[in-house]
UniProtKB/TrEMBL annotation:
This is ATP-binding protein. Residues 25-84 are annotated as: Disordered. InterPro entries: P-loop_NTPase.
Amino acid sequence: MGRLHPCPAAGPLAQRRVRPAVHRFPLGPGRRVRPGGAGLPDRVLVRGRQPEGGGGGTHRAHPLAVPGNRRRRRPVVAGRVAADRQRHRLLPVRPHPAAAEHPVSPAHPGTVHALHGFLGSGKTTLARQLEAECGALRFTPDEWTHALLGASPPEALYRPALQALLSLFEVQWTRAAEQGVDVILDYGFWRRADRDALRARCAQHGLPLRLYDLSAPPDVLWARVSDRNARVQAGRAPESVWIHEHDFHRFHALFEPLGEDEPHVSPARAVR
């Protein structure tokens, strides 16, 4: 409730209730504040305005505080939002004109270069050579496991991570080969079952396959692995992992050479 203040418009003896003016908004043109004197609140004067109830006075409360005189919203807001949504909406992707001039023919997919060989047989060296000569996309799991798990990951972490990477790689290299890009699988393919699965997948997607056989005596292989272990420990082989001698011999017992019925390419004819 406001205080009782005299209203000059209704006469000297009339009284009315005036709500104290609260200046929440800046005063616009034609408005000024008149001090109310000792014990009285300030009044906002509006030119040409009459107090409620009639009279010839010029004082009243701030018009923005009266419910019937609220500030109107700008009518362009809704239109502006609609225009922004129309301007930033997702449009259908259109092919680039250069892509239309040089389309990828599905009759000429990329070649799948699969490298078969044991540890230290030179698979990654050949893979990099093929990558440079053919402009192929290379998949070397050891580089990824080294980046994710370090140079000497435990067996409990290495095997699940390797299987997850191979599953992701399978989708990527298949899609790339279907688009006409040569791919290099620097996997090793130690087991015959893995090579059979690779041949079946390439036949399913119509991809040409070239299987490379890299081999060397066990003592030569271990000498290469030992030299690589030294570079891994020195931090000069970020693409390799450290192999223990016990694991080397254990893995070699699981290695399955190529069969006579498996067509392959010798390293001498690797780079075309």
